[in-house]
Amino acid sequence: MTGSVWHTLRRLMNRLFPVSYRWPAIDVRLGNRTLHLVGSIHMGTRDMQPLPDRLLRQLQQADALIVEADITQGGSPFENSGERAPLAERIDTDALAKLDALCNELNLTVSVFDTLPAWQIALMLQAQQAQRLGLRPDYGIDYQLLQAAKNWQKPIIELEGAETQISLLKTLPDDGMMLLQDTLMHWHTNARLLQMMVSWWLDAPPRQSHIALPTTFSQALNDTLISQRNTQWRSTLQALPAGEYIVAVGALHLYGEDNLPDLLKIL
């Protein structure tokens, strides 16, 4: 059997009988590039360590690991720059009441957020929520993959980098107030979403990319934080040289509307 015939047969078999994994992942082949797209969780539970042996073997055989940003570099990406009015003057009454109630629940004081941009407050609250659910950064999937890749001296490719991610947040209108308001509005829904993604790693991952996900972003934020980034990442992944790659991105980028696998298949 010639190489071209075998390649065609293999692609047909993969379409008819897609490879299944016990972690959230989707394989995409772009010509002479094979992408193993892993639905990462940036903070994980103790039970999510160590990573599955099969995934680690795939990483060991891969030409490079691709991540959103190398989060093992250390240092805080936050900078409290610029003059801001007190938070009470920047946020509406209902949202402030929700924030105050949430701070009481988390044993925080609203005053610690007084001069911070709204997007930073949102990220800090989300981190607090994840920690209360038992999630820790050093158990995160991308963190574990990065550590393993560095141990094996594998090349690491960043799709964005931490500075680019922070720059994106800084460009959100009104200092990212919509992100803060969405965080407060969908607080309990986001907790369920986090628990769902943990279950994908510990129990049963989804078998298809088109699944219904809880809504935690407004359409405008979803376009900025998910859809537009997926489109940019598609261009980067399509430009890769021949090889096999492990691509670890937030699980929300692989499932639901405008997901990255579907965009990559539209060539």
What does this structure look like?
With 267 residues, the chain is of the alpha/beta class. It has one domain. The two termini are 28 Å apart. The chain has a five-stranded mixed beta sheet with strand order 1-2-5-3-4. The protein has eleven helices and five strands. Helices cover 48% and strands 11% of the residues.
How is the secondary structure organized here?
Elements: H1 3-16, E1 25-30, E2 33-40, H2 53-61, E3 64-67, H3 87-90, H4 93-106, H5 118-132, H6 141-151, E4 156-158, H7 162-170, H8 177-185, H9 187-202, H10 219-238, E5 243-250, H11 260-265
Parallel strand pairs: 2-5, 3-4, 3-5
Antiparallel strand pairs: 1-2
Helix pairs in contact: 5-8
Q: Helix segment count?
A: 11
Number of domains: 1
- Strand count: 5
Q: What is the mean predicted local confidence, pLDDT? A: 89
Report strand order across the widest sheet: 1-2-5-3-4
Q: What share of residues are in beta strands?
A: 5-15%
The poorly predicted ranges are 6-10, 12-17
What level of helicity do the residues show?
Answer: 40-55%
Biggest pleated sheet: 5 strands, mixed
What's the shape?
globular
- The chain-level structural class is alpha/beta
H/E series, N to C?
Answer: HEEHEHHHHEHHHHEH
Q: How far apart are the termini? A: 28 Å
Describe what is shown at a glance:
With 267 residues, the chain is an alpha/beta fold.
Keywords:
5-stranded mixed β-sheet; alpha/beta; 267 residues; 11% strand
